[in-house]
Inverse folding.
């Protein structure tokens, strides 16, 4: 019998900030990683250009959640505004879970801090959930294999 491996759903995830695990986010956008290409050719070589790796760039992590009375993430952003960047830098992780709530994939971010906060748009005629957004910059990302399942 073949051991079937279905892909994981993207709707169960947690955020861990400096060892503290928090759920309740409606959306997390995990950033891309790209490496600049440096083209190089010496005068005595063929007309084909060599392509060398340059700087690696990491996109920003974006978190969205329904506003509550918790001020934790906004206060984290305030540390940056107040110039407390040393305190604001944290290691964070996004943890994907399977249907049983078990961790199956983990993305870790180094030296992360919130660079942008977006308050919810309010509309007296609507009945949507008020959504806050925070954008987090970081200095590196790793995808970690969890429990031999990924």
């Amino acid at each position: 019998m073949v051991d079937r491996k279905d892909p994981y759903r993207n709707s169960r995830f947690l955020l861990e900030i400096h060892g503290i695990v928090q759920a309740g986010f409606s959306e997390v956008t995990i950033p891309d990683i790209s490496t600049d290409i440096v083209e190089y050719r010496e005068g005595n070589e063929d007309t084909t250009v060599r392509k060398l790796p340059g700087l690696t760039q990491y996109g920003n992590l974006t978190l969205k959640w329904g506003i509550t009375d918790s001020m934790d993430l906004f206060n984290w952003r305030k540390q940056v505004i107040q110039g407390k960047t040393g305190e604001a830098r944290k290691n964070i992780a996004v943890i994907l879970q399977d249907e049983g709530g078990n961790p199956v994939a983990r993305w870790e971010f180094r030296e992360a801090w919130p660079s942008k906060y977006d308050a919810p748009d309010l509309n007296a005629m609507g009945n949507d959930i008020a959504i806050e957004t925070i954008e987090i910059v970081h200095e590196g990302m790793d995808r970690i294999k969890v429990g031999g399942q990924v």
